[in-house]
Structures are given as structure tokens and as C-alpha cells.
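Hi there,

I know you've been waiting on this one. I reran it after we fixed the sequence typo, so this is the corrected version. Both the input and the resulting structure follow.
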Amino acid sequence: MGQEIDWGAFEAVLLDLDGVITPTAEVHQRAWASLFADYDYTDADYLAHIDGKPRYDGVRTFLASRGIALPEGDPTDPPGDDTVCALGNRKDATFNALLDAEGIEPYPGTMAVLDLLDSLDTPQAVVSSSKNARRVLHAAGLGDRFGVVVDGIVAAEHALPGKPEPDTFLHAAGLLGAAPAATAVVEDAVSGVAAGRAGGFALVLGIDRGGNREALAGAGAHLVVDDLAETLGGAAP
């Protein structure tokens, strides 16, 4: 079955960042693995409890899977182990150290689709649960590419619940002046796919970067590909 998509059919395209535009999902996974090294953490825990969620939600959900409850704490807590926020901030510090040391390059297939969307004058937005989204975009040389970035900081400012709720996607579509029923969502996380379907978007495209295809389809993805280059058909790089 062909995977080619008519990208010109959409009023706008909303893309998650980590695992969709940049391979930062791998960096996040390593940071989470370091954080929870003493909790018998596995790669399956990332997909089941953390992937796509705001950072503190990921901490809380993972700990609950181990029957552990910690005080919530405050976002100003220094990195540590005593509260949900302290753990989340320790993960953030580890992630930023890895990003600074190694840098990041965007996926070529995604860049090919973004270039096509530019040629079609189709507006695009980044919709990410991460509060590091703008930092990652700058590290990837994409700091000025997107006029609309709805990240964890924007979500907090506007009291928008995170994925799997659709609010961040709906907010981004509104900023672009696009109707959800004419807008595409591109996600690599189950929670993000669920958010896209809950928002009634025209296309919810899942990207399987390894071992998540069935879960993405089960969450409601209309189509799942390994890389966005597949959607370009004969125009793929």
C-alpha cells in the first residue's frame, strides 16, 4: 500500500519535535534511563509511561508504575530525588548536558517535507510537551524556521493540559488560523497520536522510530510510517 500523502491538501501541518523533526527522543531516553537507573528502568518504560508527556507527568506516571508516590514539590526545586519536580529537573539537567555535548541534526526526511510545505505556502507549527523545544530547535539550526511553537512553556502560560489531551494542538491550529478538520498532525508518541485524534484533525500521521507501530495505530493514527520521506512518493530524497 502506498504511503504518499498530498501535503497540499491541508491548511496547516502541526509537528511534534522530539522523534519527528529531530532525533532528540533518543537523547531524552538516555536522560530518563540515567534518572531511573536504580528503578529497574527499561526502554519499554519510556514508551509506556513517559513518551510524549510533560516532564513532571512522566516522572509521576513512571513512579506510579513502581508503586512509588513522592511529594509534588515545586518547579523551582533544585535537581534531586526527593520530589517529582526535583527528579524532573534532574532529568532536564542531564538532557541539556547531553544536548550541549553532542548537538543534534534534524531528520532529512522531515526536512524534505518541511521544504515542500514551504513551497506550498502551507503554515507549520511545532507542538511539543518539552520546555526545551526552542533550545533544541536552535541546536538543530531551526531556531527561526517556525513562527508558532507551542511547547511546555506556552502550555503552562495558557494552562493547557498536555498530551494526550488535544489542547496544545488546538491552540497551535488556532494561532495559524487553521481548522482542525483541515489540518494534519505528525507524531511519534502514543500520547500525541491520541491527542491528534481527540482534536478531530484531518490526518494524524504516526512515525515509528522503532518498535511502536502497533501502539501508534492502536492509539488512532490514520497512517504509520518509518520516516516522513516515505510520504513524498517519487519525490522522496
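Quick highlight: The longest strand covers residues 183-187.

Best,
R. S.
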